[in-house]
Design brief:
Layout: H1 2-10, H2 12-18, H3 22-27, E1 30-34, H4 39-50, E2 54-58
Parallel strand pairs: 1-2
């Protein structure tokens, strides 16, 4: 029961906007985000905070950490 309350608190804004089914489809969503500079990084952060199941980030060139806003999203990928 406590986990259901925590989940409802986490998704309260989505429930108000989109109804009770929103958290279910958010948790089941796989998202491909193309473009990781500026706005793309902010969208990625918001999708993660919204609770999507999976997020694949794609850019047409190598992204440097100084180009990301916020730079918190930069996790070096082992080669």
């Amino acid at each position: 029961m406590a986990s259901a309350r925590r989940r409802q608190a986490q998704y309260d804004q989505q429930i108000c906007l989109w109804g009770l089914e929103a958290p279910k489809w958010l948790r089941a969503s796989q998202v491909l985000l193309a473009g990781m500079k500026g706005l793309g990084a902010e969208i990625a952060k918001n999708l993660i905070l919204a609770g999507v199941k999976g997020l694949t980030m794609l850019d047409h060139e190598q992204v440097r950490c100084c180009e990301l806003i916020p730079p918190l999203l930069w996790l070096p990928f082992p080669a």
